[in-house]
Amino acid sequence: MAVFFTSDTHFGHAGALSRFRRPFASVADMDEAMAANWNATVGPDDEVWHLGDFALHRKPDAMAALLERLHGTKHLITGNNDGPATLALPGWASVQPYTELLLDERRLVLCHYAFRTWNGMYKGALNLHGHSHGQLKGMPRQIDVGVDVWDFRPVTVHEILASRQRTKKRE
């Protein structure tokens, strides 16, 4: 079982195409590509932490069908665009605004929003967040896990850390 993180899918949101410069011809293309990328990355027995803004402008039954279609056990860290219908979807294993995890001996602080400070930041804890769509200059040990940053798919902590190492080597 692997553990993945993602955020800001904005399934069904036409405004996401232009506002976040997403390279899709239509909302249907965007939604289908992100669902395909998710299922190509995440296995049925994996776990996914979605750090908010799952879907907009979709009816509850359409959101539920989409969530059911996506692989893995899914947890929602609530975002500013997650309304009551999203929070009530039966496909979430848990719903909360914030959580801290210990994964492979690394502390993770999860929230939709980036923090200036967070629990354990000086002891190696990572702050995983969304909301900024790759537009916010990060701090050390702070990572935007949004789909706009990670090729429209969920990502593991190992991939995040490997990417940061490649970036440091180029600097």
From TrEMBL:
Coiled coil: none annotated. Belongs to the metallophosphoesterase superfamily. YfcE family. Gene3D superfamilies: 3.60.21.10. Residues 1-133 form the Calcineurin-like phosphoesterase domain. CDD domains: MPP_AQ1575. It holds the Pfam family Metallophos_2. This is Metallophosphoesterase. InterPro entries: Calcineurin-like_PHP_lpxH, Metallo-depent_PP-like.
